[in-house]
Amino acid sequence: MFNCFSSVQHIAQRRHVNVLAGALFASSLVACGGSPSGGDGAVDAARDATVDSGTLPDAAIEDAAVDSGTVPADFHLPAGHFHPAIVEPVVVYPRPDSETNDYARHRWAYPGIEYRIPGAVVQGGAWPFYYELIDGPPGATIGAQLVMRGEVRVAPDDYGVIRWTPRSEDEGATFDFHVRVTDQEDSVVDALWTVTVDSSHFIFVSETGDDSNPGTIDRPFATTAGWYHGDVNDTTYAGKLVYYRGGNYQPVGAASRKENLPIEAGKKPMSFMAYPGENVVFDATRANWTFWARCDDVFFSGIHFDGSKLVQPDGTPIRNSRNIAFYGERNEHRITFFENRVSNIQPGNPADDRFGNDNPAFVWRPSTHAVRGSNWVFVNNVFDGSGPFRGNGPSAVSLSCVSYIVYEGNIVRNWEGTGTFYDKSNADHVTERNNDLWAATSGGAALGHAMGAGMSDSYDPSHNPGYFEVCWNRIRVDRTRLPSGVTVGMAIQVGLGSTPGDGPAAVYRNSIYGSVWFNRVANYEGIAEGNVIQGELRQDAPAIVGAGDNFYTDDLTETVFDADGALTGAVRASYLGTHGAEVQ
């Protein structure tokens, strides 16, 4: 043993509070180079337990009191209670107007409908942050900091989130936004952009609508066909932003493309949102979304995606299912998934032994060699249910050849698959921060790894990956399908191929029940500090963990965590606030 000395919105934002435990999840790291409530409909669906696929177990619904708490006098933590920055902080969303397309979601608002976006998503830095709205229209707010709940700090529902409802008289006006983010070391980064209030930039879909309507808020379409028109080349609604009103939908695209929804640059909308406060469920079993070259500034928020497409219209089985895929030789910048819910993701159709072995995932971006994407953000989403496990899937997210990626505030539960957040190869500058995976596996379900990045140059020998951090996460992996001699599943995995990395792979301030794996550390700088680990250390992990300031035990019967992932007993008395994911 080494002992150190030294809903979907509301649900997804309950990062440090009761995520009712079942068995759990693996996190892997391989480093990489009408209502103003803002989309709470997915949460309401969970609480009502009446979503299409059936009833959610009680354990899937979290304590609703996360917002109760007091604001600390100072956002700064005491010395030794935060970790210094591994990399300099950089804003990855929203990017300034000079970089983004005119149709980018954060640049448009509809009068009378809440404008709700992540205010400034930061890769790197010393977390937790303090957010300030330096400039914005009257009534705009941002959640500034964590709040005290009991003896620890937790993220309120609006932490780092911009909320603003423009007035009808704001139609046609443009407003400046300026968000400043300060980290624990007083490093500062700024996000600046403009927002124009313009109802003509939006179209609406409602179960009570008609596809012959013009798609306005008063005369909405009835289905996705209302704006897609069954034709990949139709440009009628290019660049519009789509709001779906509450209801159940089965999006279908082009018959010539096997009913999928191919999106090509300059031809279709790129932003798809649930109307604030309404439950929007997509039956995802009939069509995949496929984004092609130069599809930048893609935005999904507040939508519940249920199921995976497993068979083509002609009955041909789909061996590897990918709900949302990004293709093309010139890929894709500024991709954002915010406050969505994902359920019942499957690897493919078991027609033969080849299914589910080629990176099936909810979101998938393949190798594009030297053509790189950048600024991908997954914030405050819920990934609830997948499987069955296959040799290489399903993952929640599987990305290759992307720079500057942030996974923050997500929840994963009941996941039976190869992994969850899996940046497979040729990635760099990746932060996986403050995610809750304490109920990610259950009942002996298999989970090979998650929260991983392919720290290799296998797709682009000219690119050296690096600058990867997994921090402030709760990760639990209970009994899984394990190799001989292994008693607990993989929680953190860090490795690199033959090419030296450009930057470190850092694992710090996590609460971990499961195995930790480092290998090939001669190719990169491995860092493990401030973690509480109950499990096994594999390959090079004993040296890395032993060299850092960590609490570690391989005794799985020792009392370290309670059922919700909080430190307990003697470990809590000694390490709360300095080790593990709880913030104090």
Description:
It is a single chain. By secondary structure, this protein is mostly beta strands. It has 2 domains: 9-68 and 240-247 and 269-575, no CATH class; 114-197, Immunoglobulin-like (Sandwich). It is 5% helix and 32% strand. The chain is built from 5 helices and 43 strands. The strands form 8 sheets. The chain has an 11-stranded parallel β-sheet with strand order 12-13-16-19-22-25-28-31-34-37-40. Strands 14-17-20-23-26-29-32-35-38-41-43 form an 11-stranded parallel β-sheet. The longest helix has 8 residues, at 41-48. The model is unreliable at 1-65 (pLDDT under 50).
Ends: how far apart?
25 Å
Number of structurally distinct domains: 2
Q: Find the count of extended strands (DSSP E, 2+ residues).
A: 43
Mean pLDDT: 85
What Rg, in angstroms, do the CA atoms define?
Answer: 22 Å
Q: pLDDT below 50 for ≥5 consecutive residues: which ranges?
A: 1-65
Name the shape in a single word. Answer: globular
The major pleated sheet works out as:
11 strands, parallel
Adjacency order of strands in the biggest sheet = 12-13-16-19-22-25-28-31-34-37-40
> Which percent bin holds the helix content?
under 10%
SS field, number of helical segments: 5
Q: What share of residues are in beta strands?
A: 25-35%
Structural class: mainly beta
